[in-house]
Amino acid sequence: MALTEVTDANFKAETAKGVVLVDCWAEWCGPCRMVAPVLDELSQEMADVKITKLNVDFNQKTAQELGIQSIPTLLLYKDGVLVDKAIGALPKPQIKKFIENHK
C-alpha cells in the first residue's frame, strides 16, 4: 500500500478506520528522511496498516492540535483513537513492533 499524505483538511477522515500510522515530518528534517524509506518498506509488508505522512510545515493546525514538538513523531491510531506515540528516528524492527503491539 502506498503512503498517503494527510493534511489539516483530511486528517480526521484518514485516521478514522483501522490501524493508521501517522509520520509527522518536515522536508528539512534529516532523521525524517532516514525514516521515510523504512515506512515505504513497511507499507508494502503490512497491507493491513495504513501508513500516512503529515508534513508539519504545511499542516500546522493539525500539528499544533496534536502537540507535535519534535520530529519525526510517529502516531498510531486505531479506529480514530490515538493509542501510542513514538518520537525519533527508530530502526525498522522497532517501528514494526510499535505497530504490531496495537493490531
UniProtKB/TrEMBL annotation:
Domain annotation Thioredoxin: ranges: 1-103
Gene Ontology cellular-component annotations: cytosol
Site (Contributes to redox potential value): G30, P31
A GO biological-process term: cell redox homeostasis
NCBIfam families in alphabetical order: thioredoxin
Disulfide bridge map: C29-C32
PANTHER family on file: GEO12009P1
Keyword Repeat in record: no
Protein name: Thioredoxin
Xref: SUPFAM superfamilies: Thioredoxin-like
InterPro entries, per the entry: Thioredoxin (IPR005746), Thioredoxin-like_sf (IPR036249), Thioredoxin_CS (IPR017937), Thioredoxin_domain (IPR013766)
Residues under site feature: Deprotonates C-terminal active site Cys: D23
Gene Ontology MF terms in the entry: protein-disulfide reductase activity
Tree of life domain: Bacteria
Segments passing through the bilayer: none
Similarity field: Belongs to the thioredoxin family.
Positions annotated as active site in the UniProt record: C29 (nucleophile), C32 (nucleophile)
Annotated organism of origin: Leptospira soteropolitanensis
Keyword set, alphabetical order: Disulfide bond, Electron transport, Redox-active center, Transport
